């Protein structure tokens, strides 16, 4: 007889104990069902939450640095915010695009394949107007880009890709290069319509105008990068001990690398338009300050220091005297 098998006397003793109430059985609660996560087999998520956190941090960093870089390039305040990261099909992405837009197919050496950078024409034309010295009226009608506008748009996209490359460099290095530019989404055939893609959406604000920038990665080409992300996360981001401390350290490193526009402002004055148009070399503009008065040092649009004007090696300098509370 097997070691764990009960004989008849033991069975009878157990039944008598149950009848007498000495042994109680827990009754199963039919209402207590375990909750299981819902999995969508039609639209599965291929990227884990841990990796999505890293990708999100990279693109949030890119949004901040590109905001500052573009603001300096256009001499106008540009605000860029990451709106969402979604996993969908390439067909769903193209169907969401306007009739006319700026689509750029970008290679990423040494990795195979391409990804797409799409910029709404309303903000792109606004950028171009600012580059050409205009105010950017915002009066936009859907149309194709002119040849001049295409040349200037490539300059802006190259600026975007330079900042995008820098944002990724802390995780993985690749060299982005524009392979093709189209204004009609129907002509983009670089991917299969049912290809799974990772879509990162950004909102761009310039004055009162808003627009969208999309970066679309096909999952099959993103996979080699994801493998490197897994290695990075296993080494630095998903350790059981010190995980929170490492997150703060990583965030601090990214913040310290962010570029800011620092400039000195003497003062402001008011002149009639006729006087401004009549200005010529050698004219003197009278300011409402003395030569020994403090000037302001601005971080973007905020005054953070007071300073004195000075000279060093025949170069004009600002000597900080105190910090301004902000």
User: Low-confidence runs (pLDDT<50, min 5 residues)?
Assistant: 236-241
CATH superfamily (homologous) name of the largest domain: CheC-like
Using the coordinates above, name the CATH class of the largest domain. Alpha Beta
List the domain count as a whole number: 2
Query: How would you classify the quaternary structure?
Result: single chain
Whole-angstrom Rg: 31 Å
Q: Which percent bin holds the helix content? A: 25-40%
Average pLDDT confidence is 78
| Computed structural class | alpha+beta
CATH topology name of the largest domain: Chemotaxis protein chec
β-sheet strand percentage: 25-35%
SSE arrangement, N to C = HHEHEEHHEEEHHEHEEE
DSSP E strands, number: 10
């Amino acid at each position: 007889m097997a070691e764990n098998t009960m004989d008849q006397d033991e069975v009878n003793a157990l039944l008598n104990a149950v009848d007498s109430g000495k042994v109680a059985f827990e009754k199963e609660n039919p209402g207590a069902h375990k909750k299981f996560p819902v999995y969508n087999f039609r639209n599965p998520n291929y990227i884990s939450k841990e990796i999505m956190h890293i990708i999100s941090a990279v693109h949030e960093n890119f949004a901040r640095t590109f905001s500052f870089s573009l603001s300096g390039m256009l001499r106008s305040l540009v605000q860029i915010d990451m709106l969402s990261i979604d996993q969908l099909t390439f067909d769903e992405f193209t169907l969401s695009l306007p009739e006319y837009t700026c689509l750029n197919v970008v290679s990423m050496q040494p990795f195979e394949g391409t990804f797409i950078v799409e910029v709404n024409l309303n903000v792109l034309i606004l950028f171009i107007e600012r580059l050409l010295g205009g105010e950017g009226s915002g009066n936009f009608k859907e149309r194709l880009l002119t040849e001049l506008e295409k040349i200037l748009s490539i300059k802006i996209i190259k600026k975007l890709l330079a900042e995008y490359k820098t944002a990724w460099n802390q995780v993985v290095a690749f060299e982005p290069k524009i392979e093709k530019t189209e204004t009609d989404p129907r002509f983009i055939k670089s991917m299969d319509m049912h290809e799974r893609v990772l879509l990162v959406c950004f909102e761009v604000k310039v004055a009162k105008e808003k627009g969208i920038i999309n970066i679309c990665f096909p999952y099959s080409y993103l996979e080699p990068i994801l493998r490197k992300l897994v290695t990075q996360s296993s080494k630095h981001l998903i350790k059981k001990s010190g995980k929170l401390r490492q997150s703060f350290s990583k965030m601090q490193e990214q913040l310290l690398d962010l570029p800011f526009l620092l400039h000195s402002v003497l003062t402001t004055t008011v002149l009639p338009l006729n006087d401004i148009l009549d200005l010529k070399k050698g004219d003197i503009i009278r300011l409402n300050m003395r030569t020994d008065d403090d000037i302001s040092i601005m971080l973007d649009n905020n005054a953070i220091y007071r300073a004195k004007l000075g000279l060093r090696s025949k170069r004009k300098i600002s000597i900080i005297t105190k910090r301004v509370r902000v």
